[in-house]
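S1.2 Input.
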Amino acid sequence: MRKLILSIVLIIAVISAITLLVTNNSNKTFLEKEGLEGLTTVQMVEKLEAKTIDPNNYNASITATQLSIYTSVKTYTFDVPDDLFYLSIAPYINQTHPCGTHSLVTCRGELKNTTFYVLIKDDLDNIIVDQVVTSENNGFAGLWLPRNMTGTIYVEYNNFSATSEIETFNDSNTCLTTLKLTT
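S1.3 Output.
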């Protein structure tokens, strides 16, 4: 009889623990589940760009002024800092896609996990970026630039290179997929 009572108590304790665990997990917000809760907009963009996400779970895009994350039940929006502009680049050799507003979930570039040299100068010939960057699993490399500038981006990869004009105004594109690398 004593073993039966101990067994029943143990079963109830296990069921209670499982119920508590499931309840606590289901009460987490979407942002908590994705590890985005409490992050700045800049940190969220960098985290989203770096991870491969199933677009059936949610989508995220960034304009010059706003990060938007779309789930099946809610849209979350976050302001981009007034002095920053996010430009995501996908240099390519053989294939690209047209894009204006960068999707941190569905945009895919040809050259995944690839290291590039990037030089960005503004129209006054000031160097804004002069560094080596590596594209993420999605084939894009994100760059935080000063807002409200025009300039030129130069990208080099092995013996290939590409140059393009860029701008970082409120109506500027955040996705640059026209950097065709040639010899």
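S1.4 Remarks. The mean pLDDT is 89.
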